[in-house]
Amino acid sequence: MKKTLLQNLAFLLPYLLFLISAGIFLSLHSKAEAHILLNQYRSEFLDYFFRYITFFGDFVTVIAVTFLLCLYKYRFAILVGGSNILSAGITQSLKHSIFDDVVRPKKFFEGMNTLNLVPGFENYLYNSFPSGHSTSAFTTFFCLALVVKNKMLKFLMFAIALTVGFSRVYLSQHFLNDVYAGSLIGVITSLAVYRFVFLSERPANAKWMENSLMNRK
Questions:
Q1: pLDDT grade for 124, boundaries at 50, 70 and 90
Q2: CB-based contacts of 119-125 (< 8 A; 24+ apart in sequence)
Q3: How many CA atoms does the CB half-sphere of 202 hold within 13 Å?
């Protein structure tokens, strides 16, 4: 596993930097203060950009990526699909049990007229923590980083995951701490599933996982 971590520093080092910087920021401000500070930076271009990039964290993207990987190698598809099933299960369980009373920014700031919202974008009100889209984005794109070899592509996977996560804050669908938690769930579960699929004896030696829909041996 140590070798895997070292091979993916192009993703993990900037991710660690995000965890440290965001952690410091959140330790200095309440989640409401942090959200208001981030919410003041707006533009028409960013409104348009983030309202669409955020869909890279929904289930349609996961299904599409998993299917495309089935065309290349079942092992990669199982990594992405299995990791997302596990991370989504954890996130949704937390949302609807322990943290079911945590509301989203629009509801939290209701009546205060302090939020800049994207016109025409539907904002949800409840089940804020953790962020499901952030969990999905970090799960999917970290899994892709684990299987690509090029360091620039690994960094690009991180950049996409982080952009999707930040889109949830920009759109006021989530607080920064929701995204922070979702990213941790995504990365940790991906590593766990990767270890099982790639490094455990039986799955690692399962030859059928090396096949694909396009190449059946």
A1: very high
A2: 119/47, 121/51, 121/171, 123/171, 123/172, 123/173, 124/173
A3: 0
Q: What is the DSSP string of 32-61?
A: HHHHHHHHT---HHHHHHHHHHGGGGSHHH
Predicted local confidence at residue 204, as pLDDT: 73
Tokens for 214? 């396009």
Question: Cα(87)–Cα(138) distance, rounded to whole angstroms?
Answer: 10
- For the chain, the maximum distance between any two Cα atoms, rounded to a whole number of angstroms, is 63
CA–CA separation, 160 and 137 (whole Å): 8
Inter-residue contact 197 to 170 (CB < 8 Å): no
- Answer for the pair 172, 117: CB distance below 8 angstroms, yes or no: yes
- Span 194-206, pLDDT tens digits: 999 998 878 777 7
Peptide bond into 119 cis (omega under 30): no
- pTM value? 0.94
What are the distances in angstroms from CA 122 to CA 51, 119, 128, 171? 10, 9, 15, 9
Report the chain's terminal Cα–Cα distance, integer Å. Answer: 29
